[in-house]
Each structure stands twice: as structure tokens, then as C-alpha cells.
């Protein structure tokens, strides 16, 4: 109370009214100031390690891991004081999809996004990124079990070859995959992809035409990638993009906490459920 009203009344007068020694107030005030300074440093450190992505909720979770119980309001105040603005506060532009895969393959997944078996269902999508003055593209494969990015690729063309290279990067046995689900982008319609899926016994599933919610996890993952990795970035070469994407995927899988996984990383979630 003294701290909140010291701009109105003298500390001495308030201590007299509350029958508190001034030395006690100044001692406790110093402790609080030291704690505020330490907390501010922790919040700045957590925010920077999140690559400027975490908001109040995730910072609160990370502080709790370090033994601090702090309200989101207090975290928000410190973030404002320190000039910390999450990338998620910036409005984003979402381009419309163009060509469509008219295949008769149906939506086998049927929005069953919560899977209890590792590698049973993999979803995918593509997004764009700027390399010098040209658009390049990123493809990722996401395991619905723990939201892990199990495969990825980047290149100058939005094509089936990009998808094939993403599959080639998967470190797991592809025969463990049971279902591959995507939207109806034309880049996913290719005989070579179909042959590869058939070789490994992977069933195909496609979203209904014009229904992005049928591939909601892939859409959400790419919204995250666009915000955390793509937005504002201009890479000098394909090699730089490949290196930065490798680093981001490692961070995404092993360091970044996910709200859908009860604020665990994909790696932590898998280890806890072995």
C-alpha cells in the first residue's frame, strides 16, 4: 500500500499511520526491486529465446518451470516496459490458393486430428518465402500424434518434387506411416508421389474442395511458420534458407512449447508417452 501511494503521501507519514518502521519498508522495497529486476531479466531472456514469439501465456509457463509464479498481468506490464512485442500481435496477410486437385480421393482423415499413435497420420502443406527478389517455397510433413515436423524441404518451385524431397528427409521408416492427408493443391497430385505412397503402403486422404478446416493442423502449423520464420525474412540464397529452416525445425521440435501439447515440446510429449 505504501508503495502504491508514495506519490501522494510521504513514506514517513504512511509508516506512522501503519505503525511500521521506515527501515522495514525500505528493506522490503529493496527486496521487491531486486526481484522485479531479476524477473525482468528472466522475461527478456525467455522472450529472446523464443525468437520473439512467446506471449504472456507461454512466458508464464516457462517462468513456472523456473520456480516463479507470476500473473499474466504482471508479465504484460514488464513486457511493455521492456518493449517486447510478440510477432503474433502483427496482422498477417493470407493469400488464396489457386489451382485445385480434382481427384476423386475422399477425406479419409475426417478431421480426426488427435491421434494416439506415432506416425500413423501425417499431414502436409506448402507456403512461400522470399529469397532475394523471388518467391521460394517450403513443404513440411507434420505428425498428428505430437505435431512434430518429421520432414521438410525448400526450393524455387511449388511442385511435387518439393513434396518428394520432404518425404526423403524423414528419418523414420516410411512403412510406419499409414495415412497422408493434404488439401487439394495441385502440387500434391503427381504419379511419382502416388507410386511412392503405394510402395510404402501409405493411404491417401484429401480435404474436401474449398474446406480448409479439413486440414486444420497443417494450416495452423503453417500460420505458425509464417509468423515465426517467414514474416519479414528475406534470404540471400537457397543455401541460407536451407540452413535457417534446418535450425528452425530443430527449435520447433525440441525447444518450442506447444499449447496443443499441454505446453510441452513435440520431443517432450513423445518421451512422456512412450
| Number of helical regions | 10
> What characteristic shape results from the CA principal axes?
elongated
* H/E element order: HHHHHEEEHEHEHEHH
**Cα Rg:** 25 Å
Structure class = alpha/beta
Share of helix, binned: 40-55%
Low-confidence stretches: none
Mean pLDDT: 85
**Percent of residues in beta strands?**
5-15%
**Main beta-sheet annotation:** 6 strands, mixed
How many runs of DSSP E, i.e. beta strands? Answer: 6
Distance between the first and last residues' Cα = 51 Å
Describe the structure.
- Strand 4, helix 7 (191-199) and strand 5 (203-206) form a beta-alpha-beta unit.
- This protein is an alpha/beta fold and 274 residues long.
- Helix content is 43%, strand content 14%.
- Helix 4 packs across helix 5.
- The mean pLDDT is 85.
- Strands 1, 2, 3, 4, 5 and 6 form a 6-stranded mixed beta sheet that branches.
- It is built from 10 helices and 6 strands.
Provide a brief overview of the structure:
This protein is an alpha/beta fold. It contains ten helices and six strands. Strands 1, 2, 3, 4, 5 and 6 form a six-stranded mixed beta sheet that branches.
Write the layout of secondary structure elements.
Blueprint: H1 2-5, H2 11-17, H3 22-49, H4 56-65, H5 72-82, E1 121-131, E2 134-143, E3 148-155, H6 160-168, E4 179-182, H7 191-199, E5 203-206, H8 216-230, E6 234-235, H9 238-254, H10 266-272
Parallel strand pairs: 1-4, 1-6, 4-5
Antiparallel strand pairs: 1-2, 2-3
Helix pairs in contact: 4-5
Amino acid at each position: 500500500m505504501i508503495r502504491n501511494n508514495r506519490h501522494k503521501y510521504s513514506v514517513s507519514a504512511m509508516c506512522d499511520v501503519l505503525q511500521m518502521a521506515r527501515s522495514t519498508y525500505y528493506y522490503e522495497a529493496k527486496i521487491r526491486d531486486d526481484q522485479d529486476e531479476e524477473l525482468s531479466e528472466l522475461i527478456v531472456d525467455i522472450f529472446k529465446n523464443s525468437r520473439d514469439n512467446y506471449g504472456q501465456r507461454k512466458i508464464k509457463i516457462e517462468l513456472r518451470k523456473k520456480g516463479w509464479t507470476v500473473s499474466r498481468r504482471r508479465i504484460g506490464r514488464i513486457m511493455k516496459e521492456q518493449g517486447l512485442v510478440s510477432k503474433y500481435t502483427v496482422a498477417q496477410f493470407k493469400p488464396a490458393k489457386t489451382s485445385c486437385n480434382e481427384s476423386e480421393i475422399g477425406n479419409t482423415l475426417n478431421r480426426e486430428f488427435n491421434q494416439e499413435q506415432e506416425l500413423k497420420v501425417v499431414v502436409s502443406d506448402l507456403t512461400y518465402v522470399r529469397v532475394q527478389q523471388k518467391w521460394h517455397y517450403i513443404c513440411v510433413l507434420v505428425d498428428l500424434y505430437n505435431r512434430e515436423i518429421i520432414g521438410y524441404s525448400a526450393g524455387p518451385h511449388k511442385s511435387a518434387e518439393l513434396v518428394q524431397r520432404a518425404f526423403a528427409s524423414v528419418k523414420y521408416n516410411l512403412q510406419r506411416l499409414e495415412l497422408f492427408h493434404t488439401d487439394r493443391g495441385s502440387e500434391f497430385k503427381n504419379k511419382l508421389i502416388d507410386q511412392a505412397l503405394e510402395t510404402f503402403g501409405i493411404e491417401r486422404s484429401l480435404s474436401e474442395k474449398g474446406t480448409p478446416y479439413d486440414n486444420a493442423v497443417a494450416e495452423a502449423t503453417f500460420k505458425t511458420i509464417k509468423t515465426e520464420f517467414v514474416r519479414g525474412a528475406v534470404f540471400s540464397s537457397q543455401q541460407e534458407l536451407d540452413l535457417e529452416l534446418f535450425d528452425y525445425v530443430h527449435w520447433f521440435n525440441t525447444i518450442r512449447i506447444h499449447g496443443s501439447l499441454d505446453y510441452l515440446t513435440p520431443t517432450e510429449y513423445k518421451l512422456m508417452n512412450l
